[in-house]
Amino acid sequence: MNPPQSITDDLKARYGEAVVAMQPTRDGIPTVWITRHDAHAVLKYLKTETDKPYPMLFDLSAIDERARTHRENQPQNDFSLVYHLLSLDHNQDVRIKVPLSGEYPSLPTITDLWPAADWYEREVWDMFGINFDGHPHLRRILMPPTWQGHPLRKEHPARATEMGPFSLPPERQEREEEALRFKPEEWDLQQRAKDTDLMYLNLGPQHPGTHGVFRILLKLDGEEIVDAVPEIGFHHRGAEKMSERQTWHTYIPYTDRIDYLGGVMNNLPYVLAVERLAGIEVPDRVKVIRVMMVELFRIASHLVWYGTFAQDVGMMSPVFFMFNDRERVFDIVMAITGGRMHPSWFRIGGVAHDLPEGWEKMTADFLHYMTGRMKAYDGMVMRNRMFKARTQGIGSYTLEEAVEWGVTGPGLRACGLAWDFRRQRPYSGYEQFEFEIPTASQGDCYDRAVVRVEEIRQSLRIIEQCRNNMPPGPYKANHHLAVPPLKEHTMHDIETLITHFLGVSWGPVIPPGEACVAIEATKGCNSYYLISDGGIHAYRTRIRTPSFAHLQMIPLISRGLMIPDLLAIIGSIDYVMADVDR
Hints:
Blueprint: H1 7-15, E1 19-22, E2 31-34, H2 39-49, E3 56-64, E4 79-87, E5 92-100, E6 106-108, H3 117-128, E7 131-133, H4 170-180, E8 198-203, E9 215-221, E10 224-231, H5 239-242, H6 252-256, H7 264-278, H8 284-312, H9 317-337, E11 346-347, E12 350-351, H10 359-382, H11 385-391, H12 399-404, H13 410-413, H14 421-424, H15 445-468, H16 494-505, E13 513-520, E14 525-532, E15 540-544, H17 546-551, H18 554-558, H19 563-573, H20 577-581
Parallel strand pairs: 2-5, 6-7
Antiparallel strand pairs: 1-2, 3-4, 4-5, 8-9, 9-10, 11-12, 13-14, 14-15
């Protein structure tokens, strides 16, 4: 019997000269270069026509290649468009790259294949100036409407000191305010002659129910939502651009601020991707310490969601109890790392220092305490009749819709699919732990809550296993790209002293290559796609966040409902705007 044909061989046999190159990468994801004229047909084939389809558009990004030195096994193009597709059924990825030339290139949109491509293509145009022919609303999404230039192009300044001083004369202020004014006709939301009872309402950007600086333009018939237009970007801080100026080590604190409720959970995919590029294997103790810390932060993040979600639907007491319990998590985090919300404690090749004395008792006390609290919260919130009435049957979507829109994490599992990166693609030793993957069946606000509440219990279970089975050994890898030479050795020869000095000042020089690592973060899948050009900082950093994909679904799951239902939907999604806007 012949072995099954790989997707790269399949594409080569089917499309011939349209396949420009096959590119090996450090992450092992099949990477195929396709001409711009054939990209749409290839993507359609991969989604619907191949024997093992890739129905999820996991990510869509771009690369400015013009300043890149190491470009082996790839065309000599100006820009690259990168489509990352995912098959949940077969647990496989494929990366399609499209070479583009010219100052402002273009290619056809794929919004007719994936509705989720809408925001991704807008972001690529916003950041790189790449046009998508046929896109319904190709306009700024993260930058202000009046912004000049495209920030992720290499000629765009990376520091404020490289730009002129900011000023806002009255005439410019008027232009900025006018640019922010919502124009329904631009979104096909204009009233028809018979729509005399319709009105438009701004929900946000300053509204407690939007959980951050987030604006939703609502088209209403009375209080019924006819349509909605989410507007993001108010929290954009150029996180991906900043990676091009920071060294590999000094960028770690910036990752903490992406999902600012996730703490070291943000560090993990970044350091794992750098370690994949550098060929660093960390000790077992490092793996277990990392697992314990990210699960503590999963609990901390879920407690914030739990309390604020209950508050969104009219319950006042839970948020105070749950924020108090979150402080108990931070007591452990502070004892171990010295920080609280953003400890920036993970390092390339390990963690900042070893666990302190007494950490076992602190975690044991917390596990005992939190187990009882979860039972109390079940009665207070999950079995509360008012909570059920506000959330059951509201904001539901099917498993097919979840995959179509790129939903991951609890939102995906609430539709009945037990897909978790910790189980399907174990990292940091998760294959050694026993835990369940919570699921539900209705895909509504209540089921998303059911999944997250059970995840807290599973995190407690994982932390207990970490406490009981913490392996001995070092807390960092003995690798020249992870740690500098021992201090005592620097006193014997000048070369070792220079190596030590460069290691602690500039940081490591990571070999050229590409790697993408995804983890099961607090709100869904978080991945870092890193490109090294053989320097002390990243040539390109792409941060795929779950919240960006999830907010796109708001119009779909809110049409026909009431404004109070929308607030329940927003609360059930569990997002932070820094995770959306980066």
